[in-house]
């Protein structure tokens, strides 16, 4: 239930994209994280602009393949735990990579993260949505409620 693509020479040499057109098969953040770990991997940490662009190209190739892919955001491995809200750090600084990466790279959509009850992060993939103030909802990041199905 996913497309696995491997590259030679990169630090993270394999990626697996799982996209479910059937809404009933989409899962919350924790379920997605567990599925990746059961598969021997981790939810994606995007550690550079180059890696972000690589994933964007992979998603573009997936949509070109005629698989009928439509709107549906993708969970990535960035999140914040609710008990950190009591600290004095600004909310955007509280987001951490689930796999322990310390990369500071971020690709937030305009006015994100909105914080509040939204603590888990998706990469936007809404090709049919009308663009907002930050442009099309494609590939930038947004914090969302962790129980949302993506």
TrEMBL record:
Report the locations given in the UniProt record: Membrane
Provide GO CC annotations from the record: cytoplasm; membrane
Q: Which Pfam families match?
A: Lectin_C
Domain C-type lectin, chain residue ranges per copy: 10-150
**Transmembrane helix in keyword set:** yes
Gene Ontology molecular function: any one: carbohydrate binding
Q: What keywords were assigned to this record?
A: Lectin, Membrane, Signal, Transmembrane, Transmembrane helix
Lineage: superkingdom: Eukaryota
Please report the record's description of how this protein sits within the membrane: Single-pass type I membrane protein
What does UniProt give as the signal peptide span?
Answer: none
Q: Which GO terms describe its biological process?
A: positive regulation of axonogenesis
PANTHER family found in the cross-reference section: CHONDROLECTIN, CHONDROLECTIN VARIANT CHODLFDELTAE
What name does the UniProt record give this protein? Answer: CHODL protein
Q: Which organism is it from?
A: Glareola pratincola (Collared pratincole)
According to the entry, what is the taxonomic lineage of the organism? Eukaryota, Metazoa, Chordata, Craniata, Vertebrata
Which gene is transcribed and translated to give this protein? Chodl
